[in-house]
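User: Good morning. I'm curious how flavin mononucleotide would be positioned relative to this chain. Could you predict the structure with it bound?
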Amino acid sequence: MDLLKVDYDKCIKCGICVEACPSCILSMGELGPECNFDRGCMSCGHCVAICPTAAMDNKYVPLEEQLPLPMPVLDAETAYNFLRMRRSVRMFKPQPPTESDVRKLLEVCRYAPTAGNSQGMYYIVISDKEKIRAIAEATAQWMEQEIAEGSSNSRYFTNVLRAYRERGQDIIARNAPMLIFALARRLNTTGVSNAEQSWAYAELYAPTIGLGTTIAGFIQTCGIAGYKPLLDLVEVPAKQKIVGALMVGYPKYKFQRLVERQHLKVEFK
Ligand SMILES: Cc1cc2nc3c(=O)[nH]c(=O)nc-3n(C[C@H](O)[C@H](O)[C@H](O)COP(=O)(O)O)c2cc1C
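Assistant: Good morning! Here's the predicted structure, ligand included:
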């Protein structure tokens, strides 16, 4: 099959697919949409998803594999409260999440947006207690190195290290029973942003399957900095880079109320 297959009996030449294509590789021909540059398709499937008459098929996003819409959705108030209720969970039960729960969590991350529909996020899941402790320790050592080199984060890192070293509090990995690392082939802002989007999905979905999460900011920054002892502990495969880290576990406690945020600051011009 060429990139696109248009059922001209069904096509009403409305042009929505042409308008929707983010790569701008479609135009309207005499019979229906035509593809001008086969190689620019990012296989996002918008052309297939938006066609009102199911006339459009795409080699990368076969029409027969897609689900019809609309599906039931949350009403605005439920969605607002659901989004508002997400909180970082830092106190976990000791047992690590089951593989089945972790798979559910990461499965949903596949639907997070990625730059240019690049997708391709790769995850490493660590639940070995000793390894997690060693990862926190490696991160602490990286922070000490950063402080010695006069990093702009020195003051912040010093406070973190005070809790970690002097008071023995695991402020770095929060005694989480599991760490999930997100890896990508390229370490650039795109890879890191893709991981952030992935975590947003994971963090929102987690409570619906009984999990709690918090972004492991120190560990992921250390990983993004390419600190070798951390990369070795995580056993990062060749050609992969750490772009994110997430703590995961079953929450030890339940939140009892919603807290307020800063007021919305916005300008309309
Ligand atoms: C990029 C990023 C890094 C973070 N790193 C950490 C971290 O290392 N440790 C931690 O306990 N929380 C971390 N957090 C969680 C924030 O502290 C938390 O989102 C914020 O305090 C708001 O609380 P909430 O998530 O419960 O609404 C991080 C959050 C983000 C977005």
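The first strand starts at residue 4 and ends at 6. The CA atoms of residues 142 and 222 lie 7 Å apart.
Let me know if you'd like a different ligand tried.
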